[in-house]
Design brief:
Helix content of chain B: 25-40%
Distance between the termini of chain A: 25 Å
Number of helices of chain A: 15
Strand order of the largest sheet of chain B: 1-2
Radius of gyration of chain B: 31 Å
Helix content of chain A: 55-70%
Number of helices of chain B: 9
Oligomer: heterodimer
Structural class of chain B: alpha+beta
Order of helices and strands of chain A: HHEEEHHHHHHHHHEHHHEH
Shape of chain A: globular
Strand content of chain A: 5-15%
Strand order of the largest sheet of chain A: 1-2-3
Distance between the termini of chain B: 120 Å
Shape of chain B: elongated
C-alpha cells in the first residue's frame, strides 16, 4: 500500500489530475455516452440506440447483437434471424479490431460498479479475499453454453448482470438492483476484481474474440520502469502486464498480448515514467517467437 | 545428489497436488453454480404463468425461450405500450416480452410493428396476417358471475371482439330460472380466437369472468386416432359404415303393461 501511495505521489508531482486520469475520463465519458444513446429514446424520444445491450439497432438501421447471447441461442438450438446475425458480425468485427475486452472497459455498465468497488478496496487497503482462478470465466462460459443446450433456453440472460443492468435502466430494474449490489459486494468484500476479472463469462467470450486484435497497450518504454508497482496496483488484470513489462531479458515483445487486457489505459495514466502507450500489435521490432505460447499461457491462467 | 533429486521430486509433487486441488476447487464451484443455474433456468422455462401472454407470432414457448434475445425491441415498437419485459422477480423468464390482457390488450396492428422489429425470429416473420396470431385463448371461465349467464344482455366481450361473430358467438338457450326468457351465452371458438385479450379487458365485472390464458392451458387435445364420424361422412360424401337396419321400436312383452304405456 505504501508503495502504491508513493508512486501515486510521484505521478502527481509530474502531471496534474487530468494527466493522471485522462484515459479513465475518456472511458467514463464513453460508457455514459453509450448509456445516454440508449436512454435518449425512452427519455427524450430521440432514438439513437433502440433495444438494450443484448441486441439493438443503431439509428433504426444498423443492427448490433451481443456475441454471447447469439452463441447461447445457437447452443439452445435456434438459428437466429438475419438481422441478429448481421448484428453479431458487426459487433464481432469491431471488437476483433479494438480488442475484445475493450467492451468491458469502455462499454459495459457493470464496469463502473466494479471499478468503484476496486477503488474503495484500494483506499481502505483491503487486500485479502477468496482466491478465485482467473480461468473461472472460461469454465463459466463453457457451462453457460452447455446449460443453454441442455435447457433449450438463452439461460445466462436470466441472471446476466451485464444485460440486466442495461435492460433494467431502460425497461425497469426491479429486483435487478440486488444483483448489482451482489456484484459490488463480491468485488468489495469477497474477492478483489472478482466479477470482471475472474467470473464474468461475457468478458470471457470477449477475451476469446480479442485473441488476435491489433490494438494493444505496449510497454514501449519498459527500460524506464522503476518497479514502482503503480500499474500493477490499478490494473484490473495485473497478470497481463508482467510478460510485456519485464520480458525484455527473455526477448519478449513489449506488447501486452494477453486477451484479458481490457485496453482500459489505466496503466498509461498512472505510470510516472510513461512506460505504456496504446499502439499496434504489429508495429516496431518484435521477437514474435514466444508470443503465441505466452498468449495461450495467459488464456489458461 | 540423491537428496537434491528427492527434494526436487517432493516439490514437483507438491506443485502437482496444488494444481490438481486448484483445478478441482474451480470445477467444483463452477459445477455447484451450474446446478443452481440449471434448476433455476429449468423452472423459468416450465413456469408458463396463466396471466402472461406472449406477443403475436411468438414461437411455441420452448422454442421462444431459445430464440428470444431479451432485447426489448418489440416493446419499443408496440404503439400501445402493451408489451413489457419480465423483471427478475416476476414469474416469467427474465427479460422476455409479455403482456397482461386485463391491463393492456393487444390491438392487433395490421402492420405488425413488434414482429418486424424482432431481430432473432422469436416473433416469427412468417405471420403476415395478424388475425392468424394465437397469443392465447379466451375462456369464459366463470359461468356463475358472467352477466349473460345470469340472464342479462351484457354482451360486452362479444361486442369488443375484433373477430365479432367468429371468435365469440352468442348461443341462445332457454332461461330455466325465469322459465320464459332466453340466455345469450358467449361461446369462444378457438379456430378464430387470436388471444388478443380485448374481451378480458372489456369485461365489466370487478374481476373478469372471461380470461385469456396460454393456449396450452386452455385447449384439450383429442386422441390422434379419433375420427369425427360426421366429418368423415361429409368428406367421403357417404357414410363409411353400412346403413344400419332401422328396427321398429317396441318394448319386450315381459314388462308390465303399465310401464310400457308410460304410466306410473
Amino acid at each position: 500500500m505504501s508503495r502504491a501511495i508513493s508512486s501515486a505521489e510521484q505521478v502527481a508531482a509530474r502531471r496534474g489530475w487530468l494527466g493522471r486520469h485522462g484515459w479513465l475520463l475518456w472511458r467514463r465519458i464513453t460508457q455514459l455516452a453509450v448509456l445516454a444513446c440508449f436512454l435518449a429514446g425512452p427519455w427524450a424520444g430521440v432514438w439513437l440506440l433502440r433495444g438494450d445491450m443484448a441486441a439493438s439497432r443503431l439509428l433504426d438501421a444498423v443492427p448490433l447483437t451481443d456475441p454471447l447471447v447469439i452463441l447461447q441461442s445457437l447452443a439452445a438450438g435456434h438459428l437466429p434471424g438475419t438481422t441478429a446475425l448481421v448484428g453479431v458480425v458487426i459487433v464481432s468485427g469491431f471488437y476483433l479490431l479494438v480488442g475484445g475486452r475493450s467492451y468491458c472497459a469502455w462499454v459495459c455498465p457493470v464496469n463502473m460498479v466494479t471499478d468503484l468497488a476496486a477503488w474503495i478496496r484500494r483506499r481502505l487497503g483491503i487486500e485479502d479475499g477468496a482466491r478465485l482462478a482467473r480461468a473461472c470465466r472460461y469454465w463459466l462460459l463453457a457451462l453457460v453454453l452447455g446449460l443453454a443446450a441442455a435447457t433449450h433456453t438463452v439461460i445466462w440472460e436470466l441472471v446476466n448482470p451485464v444485460t440486466m443492468v442495461s435492460r433494467g435502466l431502460l425497461f425497469g430494474m426491479g429486483a435487478g438492483w440486488w444483483l448489482v449490489v451482489a456484484v459490488f459486494c463480491l468485488d468489495l468484500l469477497v474477492a478483489g476484481r472478482g466479477w470482471c476479472g475472474h467470473l464474468c463469462p461475457v468478458g470471457g467470450c470477449f477475451s476469446v474474440l480479442g485473441l488476435a486484435s491489433p490494438l494493444r497497450v505496449r510497454a514501449a518504454g519498459r527500460h524506464r520502469c522503476t518497479n514502482c508497482q503503480a500499474c500493477f496496483t490499478v490494473c484490473p488484470e495485473p497478470q497481463v502486464i508482467g510478460p510485456a513489462l519485464r520480458g525484455a531479458s527473455a526477448g519478449r515483445s513489449p506488447v501486452i498480448t494477453s486477451p484479458n487486457c481490457t485496453n482500459c489505459g489505466r496503466c498509461i495514466d498512472v505510470c510516472p515514467e510513461r512506460v505504456f502507450a496504446f499502439g499496434s500489435r504489429f508495429a516496431a521490432p518484435q521477437p514474435e517467437t514466444e508470443s503465441n505460447s505466452i498468449r495461450m499461457e495467459e488464456l489458461r491462467r | 545428489m540423491a537428496m537434491v533429486e528427492r527434494q526436487e521430486k517432493r516439490e514437483q509433487g507438491r506443485d502437482r497436488r496444488r494444481f490438481l486441488l486448484d483445478a478441482a476447487r474451480t470445477a467444483c464451484g463452477v459445477a455447484l453454480f451450474g446446478v443452481g443455474l440449471g434448476l433455476y433456468g429449468h423452472r423459468a422455462a416450465e413456469a408458463n404463468p396463466p396471466h402472461a401472454l406472449r406477443p403475436p407470432g411468438a414461437l411455441p414457448e420452448r422454442r421462444f425461450l431459445a430464440a428470444c434475445l431479451r432485447c426489448g425491441q418489440c416493446v419499443r415498437a408496440c404503439p400501445y405500450h402493451t408489451l413489457r419485459l419480465a423483471r427478475p422477480e416476476e414469474p416469467v423468464a427474465t427479460g422476455t416480452p409479455y403482456f397482461v390482457a386485463r391491463e393492456i390488450p393487444c390491438e392487433l396492428c395490421e402492420n405488425r410493428p413488434c414482429i418486424r422489429s424482432c431481430p432473432s425470429g422469436a416473433l416469427a416473420p412468417t405471420l403476415t396476417d395478424i388475425y392468424q396470431a394465437r397469443m392465447g385463448l379466451a375462456v369464459l371461465i366463470d359461468h356463475e358471475t358472467c352477466l349473460n349467464f345470469l340472464g342479462l344482455r351484457c354482451d360486452v366481450c362479444y361486442r369488443s371482439c375484433p373477430l365479432l361473430d367468429r371468435a365469440i358467438t352468442l348461443d341462445a338457450e332457454h332461461n330455466r330460472r325465469s322459465g320464459k326468457h332466453t340466455l345469450f351465452l358467449p361461446v369462444v371458438h378457438s379456430k378464430y380466437c387470436t388471444g388478443c385479450g380485448k374481451c378480458e379487458k372489456a369485461c365489466v365485472l370487478d374481476r373478469a369472468a372471461i380470461k385469456v390464458v396460454p393456449r396450452g392451458l386452455a385447449k384439450g387435445e383429442l386422441g390422434h386416432h379419433y375420427r369425427l364420424g360426421w366429418e368423415e361422412k361429409a368428406k367421403a360424401g357417404h357414410s363409411l359404415i353400412p346403413e344400419q337396419l332401422d328396427l321398429p321400436d317396441r318394448l319386450p312383452d315381459l314388462l308390465p303393461s303399465s310401464l310400457a304405456e308410460g304410466k306410473p
